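User: For my dataset I need records formatted as: sequence, then C-alpha cells, nothing else. Please produce one.
Assistant:
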Amino acid sequence: MPKIKNHLPRESWNSKTAWLLAFLVLLVLAAQTVRVHAFPDPRVMRQSQNQYWANIDVSTSRGDIRDRNDIPLAISVPSVSFFIDPAYWQTASADVLEDCFGHQVARKFAKPLRGRFHWVARKVPADTAQPLIDKKAPGLFTVRESRRMYPHGELASHVIGFCDIDDYGLSGVEMAWNKALYSPPQRRSFVKDAKGNLLDLIGSNAGTLQAGTGSIQLTLDSKIQQIVEWRLKEGAESSGAKWGAGICVNPQTGEILAMASYPWIDLNDRKNFGDAETLRNNVIGRVYEPGSTFKPIVLGIAKEMGLASNGDRFHCSGRAAIADGVIKDVSAHGDLTLEGLLIKSCNIGMASIGNKMNSLKSYGMLKQFGFGVKSDVEIAGEEEGLMRTPEEWLGMARANIAIGQGLAVTPLQLAMAISAIANGGDLLKPYIIAEVKNAHGEAIYKGKKRVRNTVLSPKTTAWLREALYKTVETGTGKSARVADIALAGKTGTAQIAVRGVYTKGQYVSSFVGFWPYQKPSYILLVVLGEPGKGKYYGGEIAAPVFRAVVEDMSQIYVAAKK
C-alpha cells in the first residue's frame, strides 16, 4: 500500500506568505516613521519652524452701556495688539517700540528672547498703533481685538466701573451686570508662512470681532450727572475736601438721575486704577455720621410715636446734660417750637426728644427707613452702614442718634430716607438700571418703582416738608436758596470718629434738599468729607454747591422748554 505524503494545501501556504509580506511592509513603515520623527531632515525642520502655529485668546465685543437719553457711556471699539516671534525678531529693532510703548518696553525686547510668542502690548488704539505698523519691523506682528472705551472719560466713572484687559467686569455696572455684557475671548489660530507673514486661519484678522452680548440703559441723565460732577469738584477744591459725594434722585420713583463720587478717575487711563480710595464709590461705598441732616428723620419718627407734637416748646441754653454726658450747640437758641428745632438745627431740643424714645422701637423704625441694611441698588460696592443694636443704646446713645451721631450711613441711604419725606412717606428702592437687553434685543430686566416700606404718614411728611422749606428760607439753609424755586432742605455738620473718639478739626459737611417742596421732582444730597481750608459747616460749603447744581439744572429745564 503506497505512503500518503503530508503536504500543506496550496491555499494555506499562500496565506502565510501574504501575512509575512504584510508584516515586513509594516515593519519598514514603522522604522521609517521612527526615523522621520526621531531624526528629521534638517530641511524639514527649517520649513516647519517657518510655519509656526499660535493659538491666541482674542477679546470680542462687550455690550454697550448708555444713559436714559441713549448717550453711549461704555462701548467696544477696534484696537490693535502687538506680539513678537523671537524667531523673526531682531533685537536691534527694539528702538522702534520706544515711541509707542516707552523706554522700558523697548529695553525688554532689546535682549534675546526664548520661545516663539511674547505680548508687547494689548489693545492699542488704532491711530496710536498705525505708525508702528507702518514700520514693518520683522518679527513684530499684530492682531485685531476689541477694546473697552468710555467716550466721556471721567463721567459717571464710579457708576460705570471698569474691566480687566480681557474685558471682564471688575467694578460698578460693568461688574454687577457682567453676565449680560461679557463675551468670552475667542480662540484664534494663526500660522506664519515661510516668509514670516501672519495668516489667520480662523476668523478675520481685520475688523472687530462681534459676539452675542446684551446692552444696558441706565436711569442716569448725563447732563445732570455732568453738572453734579462739575459743581462737586468745584466745592471740594474750594474747601480743600479730601472726598465728596453727590446724588440726585427722583423721589417719586426711586430713579437715580446722577451719582457722583469725588475724586473720580478717567476710565480710559488704567494708570489710575491702583489707588483703592480713588476707586471707592463714595455714594454707596463710604459710611459717615450724617449729623443734622438726620434730624428730620428722627423728628418724623418721634411724631409718629407720639413723642413730639406741634405745640411742644423747648429751651436751648447752648449746653445741656443728657444722661451721662453733655450735649452742646453752636449757640444758645433760646425758646423754640418743634419746627424751630429744624430751622435752627438745635442739638439740645433734638437730644431731649431722642432721650425719650424707646430704643427697640426706634431701632426698628430706623431699619424700616433703610439704615443698617443694603438698598440692593443694581451696582457693585454697596455698604450697609453701621448701627448698634438696641442693647448697646446706653447712656446718651439715643440723644446722640437724634442729632445724627453714633451711627454711620451711606449717602444713598440718607438720600432715599429723605425721599420718603418728599414723596409722602414711602421708602422706595433706588434703581439705576432702566433696562437690560439680551443678545436678541429682548428685555430681560426693567427697573421700576418699588416701595420697600411705608415709614411716615402723609400728615407727618407734609409738616416736615413745610418745616424744611422754612429752614431754607429763614434758617441754617439760607445759602441754598435759589430765586423762583421753592426749596426745602437741611444742613449737616458732623465730627469724624477715629476708633470711637471724635477727632478735633475733622468734619463731614453736607446739605440735602428737594424741590419744588410741595410736590418734589428732585432730591439732591451733597457731601464734602474732611474739608481743610478753615470752613466746615454744611451751610458754608455744602449748601452753595447744592444751590449751584439747582441753578444749572433749572437752566437746562428752561432751555429744554424753548
